[in-house]
Prior knowledge:
There is one protein chain. This protein has helices at 3-13, 19-31, 48-62, 89-98, 119-132, 151-162, 187-197, 200-249, 259-270, 276-282, 289-305, and strands at residues 35-36, 41-45, 66-72, 80-86, 134-135, 143-148, 172-176, 179-185. The protein is rod-shaped, with a radius of gyration of 35 Å. A four-stranded antiparallel sheet has the order 1-2-4-3. Strands 5-6-8-7 form a four-stranded antiparallel sheet. The chain is of the alpha+beta class. It is built from eleven helices and eight strands. Zinc ion binds next to helix 2 and helix 5.
Amino acid sequence: MSFASAVKMELCRSATENGCCKKAECCGLLLFGKSFSRADVTLTTGIQAVARSAAQLAAEETGAIMEVSSAMLHRGDSRVVFTLSAADQNARDAVLAAFGYTGREINLRINRSNMENDCCVGAFLRGAFLSCGTVSDPQKDYHLEFPVPFMNLARDLCALIGEIYELGFQPGMLQRRGAYVVYLKGSERIADFLTFMGAGNAAMELMQTKIVKEVRNNVNRKINFETANLGKTAQAAAAQVLAIEKILASPRGIHALPEDLQELAMLRYRSPEMSLRELGDTLSEPLSRSGINHRLQRIVDFSKEI
Ligand SMILES: [Zn+2]
């Protein structure tokens, strides 16, 4: 199941028992559906639980019968889309009237009288999100959006979210393929918003995913850093060992080297994993790192002349 579906399933489960909030949620569901006019009141969703709870809320709050049908999204695609439609003109008029609309509005707006109390704002947004919203998988991105077909409706939604004191941020708005997209970015904002709508578990999952991602990135960065360093040291040691092998294979063997380099050459040959400091400490006459570095360089240079 996608993260967005998990959020919607949780929102369906967290439905309220407050009468005022039920009305607000139902209004959000239908107003942000596919169409909301005298000719057509329809909501489409990929989640059966959303269609079912919208039909039940609509019956309770407006007395209208809404019919649910299902169909394959595309031929050969196993995904199903559920369509919820007011059964007839009486049902459509009942839905519109219940929320204070005539169905003849030129500009569809949010009618705030459907949110009687402060508690109703979260319920209204839950309905709107269930109807048209989506949220990215936190493994990939932190993005939540409501694509809305009407500009003024999108603006009203933006303003409504921006006024919520507990959240304290203004959503963004952009236009995409004929829709007005109200969106939120950032893990913390999205987690707060999910909690506000009633999806506290999804919010927690999002923040946990974020922590795991951060830890993994830190570990990866450290490993990359260490292997890069190890790479350089190991490469240098391998070049030294090859140089010493070449000297050992020459007619005079190790004695081809100046005497002050012989002990170090044999030590390096036997211990390619030793650091410069360890080499310096192991010699019969200990040497500094830079002294070792200088002599190893001389050994490599010497081998090139053979
Ligand atoms: Zn309420």
